[in-house]
Amino acid sequence: MADFADRSLGIGYTGGSLLLLGCLAGALGLWYWSEGTISVNTVTTPRVEAFYWTAITFSQTLGTALGDWIADTGGLGYQGGVLVFAAGLALIAGLYYWTNVSRVVLFWSAFILTRPLGATVGDFLDKPVSHGGLAFSRPLASAVIGGFIILCLFVLPQRAGRHPGASIGTAD
Question: How many domains does the chain have?
Answer without folding.
Answer: 1
